[in-house]
Amino acid sequence: MRAWVSETVYASAAYVLASLLTFQIVMPLQNMYFPEYASRASLLFLPHGVRVLSAWLLGWRAIFALLPGVFIVFAILAGSDVLLPSRIAAMLFAVTTAPAVFYLCKILGWDLFPAPGKRACWTCVMGVGLVSSLLVSGLTNLAFGSATAEYIAYLIGDLSGLFFLMLGLHFGFMFFEKRRA
Amino acid sequence: MTEISKLAELRKLTHSMERTLGLEELSPVERDIYYAAEDLSQDESEVRTFGLIEHTLVRNVSRPTFFRALKSLVHKGYLSQSGSANRGRYVVHGPR
């Protein structure tokens, strides 16, 4: 039970933090440096990285661990519209797609979940990130009825978000390992 | 999975990224030994400690520094001890 609580706190906090970074820092910078880019989509969408890494680490438990964080972010962005059926559908797509893709890979004989003594494969995780992004953006855009150009923007943002989140983790680990040494 | 093992798994993931992207920091001695091992492994599948010590790139490195760096390379996964009974043989792994 305690493990579930801590997983939920960490995963949801990471999701909220990644979303705040994306919407409060990345997007204003994007609008400042690329004013001609009219899309509402962020070209560096860190929350996708949190979704994929949580699903990789926690499996199906990531759905429940991320749900509070996803709800908070949607509530901040959509206000009272957060309970509209399209928003609820988007929230469900956001939390279920990445775990579903990992389990699909497992069923197909390609178990990517971490285990002691097993080598981690970041390119495989990026591959799942790509498939999840295609599915999430496809399903979300269906729910919201966005333009086709948005799909590509979402895809770029999701993949760069996952990549730079892993890169950020790399530098974070390096920083703490150097301090400890 | 405990909190620590989750962190360890995340570290393994970033480690695989570091190696592919060449972000892992190798000291100059570690790099020289790795290059020497790569050089020697082109002739044989395994490299011997003796061959490495004698290699031009490593010849000026003191023994304690050499063995420390060798151990570190094994720890980082660039080299692994050969599965054969003969100790002092290493298999070279390319950046993954």
Q: How does the overall form of chain B come out from the CA principal axes?
A: globular
Radius of gyration of chain B: 15 Å
Contiguous low-pLDDT stretches of chain B (5 residues minimum) are none
The span between the termini of chain A is 34 Å
Q: Helix count of chain B?
A: 4
User: What's the number of structural domains of chain A?
Assistant: 1
Oligomer: heterodimer
Element string of chain A (H = helix, E = strand) = HHHHHH
What is the SS-derived class of chain B? mainly alpha
- Low-confidence segments of chain A, given as residue ranges, are none
Q: CA-to-CA gap between the ends of chain B? A: 26 Å
What is the CATH homologous superfamily assignment of one domain in chain B? Answer: Winged helix-like DNA-binding domain superfamily/Winged helix DNA-binding domain
Architecture of one domain in chain B, CATH level 2?
Orthogonal Bundle
What is the mean pLDDT of chain B? 81
The count of DSSP E runs of length 2 or more, i.e. the number of strands of chain A, is: 0
CATH class assignment of one domain in chain B: Mainly Alpha
Rg result of chain A: 16 Å
List the defining traits of the structure above.
heterodimer; A: 181 residues; mainly alpha; 6 helices; globular; B: mainly alpha; Arc Repressor Mutant, subunit A; 3 strands; 10% strand
